[in-house]
Amino acid sequence: MYTEHKWTSVEKILFVVNVIPVGKVLPYGKVADLAGLPGRARYVSRALKLAPIEANLPWHRVINSAGKISFPPNSDLFQKQTELLRLEDIEVNQGNISLSKYLWQPDIATLVMTLPF
């Protein structure tokens, strides 16, 4: 007997983060929107913070709505996120990322074919 998988909110968030393409970024709020959780940007942040390392998420592709890295500028996580983004040829200038250049904007066909929920 087949039973449909009931996606938890955290699973949806982690799935969306996993499908952000290399060289693109997505703000926390947009991740929440695509996961069906509008207005839950802080929940996305918390889910990423609590995600197991084994999940091997491209967490570095998630930034704030102003196009900035959210970690304090002198922190190890700020430096790590900057480094990972630059490895994907994303220009980072003092923690700023150009949303006009690097924002992932999937079309409806991509969303329908990619998101299983």
TrEMBL record:
Protein name listed in UniProt: MGMT family protein
Domain annotation Methylated-DNA-[protein]-cysteine S-methyltransferase DNA binding: ranges: 11-89
Alphabetized InterPro entries for the sequence: ATL_DNA_repair, MethylDNA_cys_MeTrfase_DNA-bd, MethylDNA_cys_MeTrfase_DNAb, WH-like_DNA-bd_sf
Keywords: DNA damage
